[in-house]
Amino acid sequence: MEAGKRAGLLQGLKGNAVRVTKPSFSTRVPEGDSLPRQVCDHCGFVHYVNPRLVVGCVVVHESRLLLCRRAIEPRRGCWTVPAGFMEERETTAAGAAREALEEARARVEVGPLLALYNVPRISQVHLFYRARLLEPGFGAGEETLEARLFEWDEIPWPELAFPSVRFALRAYAATRERDVFAPWQDDDDSEAV
Amino acid sequence: MEAGKRAGLLQGLKGNAVRVTKPSFSTRVPEGDSLPRQVCDHCGFVHYVNPRLVVGCVVVHESRLLLCRRAIEPRRGCWTVPAGFMEERETTAAGAAREALEEARARVEVGPLLALYNVPRISQVHLFYRARLLEPGFGAGEETLEARLFEWDEIPWPELAFPSVRFALRAYAATRERDVFAPWQDDDDSEAV
Q1: Does the predicted interface ipTM exceed a cut of 0.95?
Q2: Domain span at A61
Q3: Of the four, A41, A109, A144, B95, which is 20 to 30 A from B114 by CA?
């Protein structure tokens, strides 16, 4: 429903451009709503903005974990588990598997939900699954400098890219012996930008 | 990061409007990306679209569950648990509590994660928590015709608004005796619009 409105933004603006020369949005509370939104002054279109989902996985192969060194900002050169923004028309688990394929050229089987990590400061929700390599091969994808398997004791903790990566790895370690468990949950309360 | 780009859409268009009269977006794969996106022909702004999170809760009071009859489309007149689109700068649990307050005027304490339900057809991810009333009062919010407590045997199953509501209620029933459990997960594979 709302996704359709998004597409409508572009259509609406294109349509308006025939009549008006200047896109113009005001900040106001739409009727029946409770928060201020960006509303088009010409057509009333409401430009809703909602948090984004980041989906990823802790990929296990034998006793080792697959990490990727980031080739892109933010945190270029730091290590992460495969993770990224969820795409339209996929599921959370399919998105996690896609990220493993894109960032580490790894085909994985996605298992249980490991962790739910909120980052309200930047309106993100991170979901991490446990996964395992379906075949031994992997490599560096477009956004990765280097992909590598680490024993737990070898993990470069100070060089991890994000707090949610550390959280996901710790959730993995705490639940590795179990198939059924409650996912770890935490919020990033930091004020840093 | 991407949230900033969203805001930039409006700024970018406003900026461009000084020079050009017609907003114009093309569908193409941005450099370093793998999927076609809407890209501004003037400034190169990429209009990313991502799935939305719906957050809600199964609210328990003694042995009964709190349902709301919807005052708005879609599915006006049908019953739902309090749930809605997550807002910027809140956490998933805070969003679920906010929806209980907005739709059922109910102050709740949010408990464990009950269910994760993907609806890829419309690019939505639904997260439901178990919650309990903090005080006995509740009522119909702006988007609600009527809020009511139901015993399990009284739930109007054929009049539930969405498959995810049924799924969340079943997840609640299956886990009600436990404090620590794996959330139920399912995908809506239907093709209906």
Answers
A1: no
A2: 52-187
A3: A109
